Amino acid sequence: MIDRRSLIMASLAALLPARASAAWRPRQPKPQTVDYGPARLDIYTRDGFRDRPVVFFIHGGAWRLGNRNNVNAKPGFLLDNGFLFVSIDYRMLPGADVATQAGDVEKAYAYVRANIARHGGDPDRIAVMGHSAGCHLAALTGLRGGLPGVAALVLDDTEAYDIEALAKAQGGRLRPIYAQAFADPAQWRALSPATYIGSGKHPPVFVAYSDAPIRAVVAHAFTDRLRAAGTKVALFDGSAYSHMAINRRFGEEGDALTGAVMAFLKETVA
User: I need a labelling partner for 9 at 20 to 30 A (CA). Which of 70, 113, 135, 195 fits?
Assistant: First the structure.
């Protein structure tokens, strides 16, 4: 039975212009917030969910900004498609360096893997997704073995797959946003996801890049190395997106990246 509030909201949506109706979204579902130790994470689920696949999201923000609320349409969209959704906080620069942040991600993942079943999720079907700095952290922790049992990685737009190679391509120096995060060249290799390619069996990986030419170059080089090591990879040309839009538009009706990611998730975890 449709209640009066739902009927009114549906009627209002029908009166909107087509473009406005497509952009209209119902109120974001409310998460359950838990403390996993270094920081907090939000779990989005629904009554009746059992053994559902999980998307574990790491926000971006240049390793110094952002929080677990930066999720846009992801929670509602993924819940509607039968997934649980988890979004995490991790400690920020300058109070915590990138190595510490990677450790936070691994602690958050360990908490989710140990506890997600009682929220309706399947701990053996967790896909870890990250955007920008979160993309780097997902790739780093996933490839170095810090996310045991992870079913898939969804890597959404970073330049920091191979920091030494990135610096070399830019005349031996990193751009300021990366130089602040990776200030010590002695740490570049250890903090580069590409360093760990071939160090063990990796989960399937989805890689997307936006319209900056350097992002296309590093994404292709990274996926080539993964394929050469025998890892299953999907590469998405997101040159029609800006760096922010390639994250923000996920879950929007008709979005090409959303369709590609969902096809990948269906094949790997759903």
Answer: 70
CB neighbours of residue 82 within 10 Å: 11
Q: Considering only CA atoms, which of 99, 62, 92, 59 is closest in space to residue 176?
A: 62
Find all residues with CB under 8 Å of 158, minimum gap 6, and list them.
132, 133, 135, 136, 139, 215, 218
pLDDT at 270: 86
Residue with tokens 């350097």: 214
- pLDDT beyond 50 at 5: no
Q: What is the DSSP letter of 90?
A: -
Tell me whether residue 89 is exposed, middle or buried, using C-beta atoms within 10 angstroms of its C-beta: 0 to 12, 13 to 18, 19 or more.
buried
When pLDDT is averaged across residues 125-154 and rounded to a whole number, the result is: 98
Whether omega before 213 lies within 30 degrees of 0, making that bond cis, reads: no
Kindly report, residue by residue over 193-207, the tens digit of the pLDDT: 999 999 889 999 999
